[in-house]
Amino acid sequence: MDIVKEMARTAKDIDNALLPYLDVGKHDKLRKAMKHYPEAGGKRLRPLMAITVAEAVGGRGRAAIPFGCCLEIIHNFTLVHDDVIDQDPVRRGRPAVHVLYDIPTAIIAGDALFAIAYRVLAETDVDGEGLRRLVRSVSDTVYLIAEGQQMDVDNEDSPDVTIDAYLEMVEKKTAVLFACAAEGGAIIGRGSERQIKDMFEYARLLGIGFQIWDDVLGLEGEEKVLGKPVGSDIRNGKRTLILLHAMEQLGDKGRKEKKGVLRALGNDQATEAEVKKVIDLFRELGSIEYAKQRTLQYAAEAKAKLACIEDSREKDLLEQLVDFAVGRKL
Amino acid sequence: MDIVKEMARTAKDIDNALLPYLDVGKHDKLRKAMKHYPEAGGKRLRPLMAITVAEAVGGRGRAAIPFGCCLEIIHNFTLVHDDVIDQDPVRRGRPAVHVLYDIPTAIIAGDALFAIAYRVLAETDVDGEGLRRLVRSVSDTVYLIAEGQQMDVDNEDSPDVTIDAYLEMVEKKTAVLFACAAEGGAIIGRGSERQIKDMFEYARLLGIGFQIWDDVLGLEGEEKVLGKPVGSDIRNGKRTLILLHAMEQLGDKGRKEKKGVLRALGNDQATEAEVKKVIDLFRELGSIEYAKQRTLQYAAEAKAKLACIEDSREKDLLEQLVDFAVGRKL
């Protein structure tokens, strides 16, 4: 079984279900604004997670499709609002919603997506108490995402962010939605309480690894695959685990000494040579290696949580999903 | 039974339940931003509607409190985002959330309130299928509110809005949330399908009347009660049913003739005398009277929908609620 083929197949199933959910209402502009990100495609990792877990615990994958679509719509709603908040003009090589339309429309389209996500959730084929549990899980998750986004906004103004605070932020902004996907998949597939708990944890750990791996890719990935120049995280002054580790290693004194090298941080005019010097410094300090090791650690812990699943094609897929999340080049 | 006393009593019950729901999370600033509007008080009309309807159909009012709080939180979430969208710096005499904090925090706080609203909804004491129905109703409602808000944003740039388009916008921005409150109250109170349907309609009609009455109050209310100077709708160029009726009456030719008078529209430097001239013109054209008559019509239709409720203290209260909504001075 090839995970990339499997992902492509499931993404197609998801798209077929997802896009019609967004064909609602009588307001053309609002509908187009809502569909702008979802119809640009994507790997649909969260629905894939929900469907695969539902099958892995012995349920029907199809029963998890509305729930998976709900999470994908929520993911897209957060992207629309995040881009307004971060003033990012581009998403997946296309203009952001607030650039293509305007900020009011982007705020409203995000809210409308959020509302539709719950409308779709209500279509899930679970009994009423299962639905109650899903509503709680999704709501708690979105609240944590909001908290993570607020931490991210606040961190921009604070010079020193600890690695722990960074990891908490990553967990909230990224990992909890994966965790919700796996937990919900296990609920819909009628898994045991133990499986529901462990699947949540599996996906939470995977999600943190996924995000740290993003930081590594930002320095070592290929430009055409990243969709942005290598080192743009450095030019943007983006706080990554790698940067935070390097800062800890340097301490105040070291930072002063390396001031020349670090000038490229957050300087969008930095030359390629200056960016390369920062990357070399990160490498010298062991910071890139540190991030890779942390990623592998999260990956191993995630896989260990799969012990509650019987050997099967789906368990195999969930294992491969970890390797994909923390080793992907795409 | 005095509706004002009854409202004050229920508002207190609601507040006691509502504010603790918002004491969540570990992020102080986010929590404060979320609570800024809800803790400023308010009439809590939507929860009052849900509770009273639940009792009117024979159920327990207390069972509708979480649902009522959910709608109040949604109402507040829409206010936070609306103020960002409309760039309104003040709400209820206090700085708006995006002014007290910043725009990113206001967007995130609105999203977080929305998430919490569904978390509270899940606590409703109904069976699972009842909950499914409430989730659908709330989600459809928030989607319509988004559509109404988008219409409002778009109308600002279009010179001629028809009265029908205005009423559609009012229905979506304001009336559907009242309708959802009454429908949900009837579901929670285990009313008949007929009662559920008629209670929805009762509150929808009341909600439209409520909003048109706001336009009348803006010209004829007392400043200390309005919280804004009489005629500020004129200085802000706000589209109201009164203005739209006047424009229709004048036609293109009349508008040219009255250009001098109409100069006060949307002119925040207009003198009191200039504003008064516009109000006099509205009166002369019968536009204020037209708005009053439309309000009374909606009120009468709303009351007619109460036929499905047995005579009771609660039915009496629902009738008084109509009079309050379309005749309030407070």
Provide structural commentary.
- Two copies of one chain form a homodimer.
- The first copy, chain A, has 330 residues and is an all-alpha fold.
- The first copy, chain A, is built from 16 helices and two strands.
- In chain A, strands 1-2 form a two-stranded antiparallel sheet.
- In chain A, helix 4 runs antiparallel to helix 8.
- The radius of gyration of chain A is 20 Å and the shape is globular.
- The model of chain A has no long low-confidence stretch (mean pLDDT 92).
- At the A-B interface, helix 4, helix 6 and helix 7 of A face helix 4, helix 6 and helix 7 of B.
Report the order of strands and helices of chain A. Answer: HHHHEEHHHHHHHHHHHH
Overall pLDDT metric of chain A: 92
Radius of gyration of chain A: 20 Å
Query: Roughly how much helix do the residues of chain A carry, as a percent range?
Result: over 70%
Alpha-beta classification of chain A: mainly alpha
The profile of the biggest β sheet of chain A is:
2 strands, antiparallel
Seen as an oligomer or otherwise, the chain set is: homodimer
**What's the total helix number of chain A?**
16
Q: Runs of chain A with pLDDT <50, length 5+? A: none
Anisotropy-based shape of chain A: globular
User: How would you write the strand order of the largest sheet of chain A?
Assistant: 1-2
The count of β-strands of chain A is 2
Largest interface: A-B, 47 and 47 residues
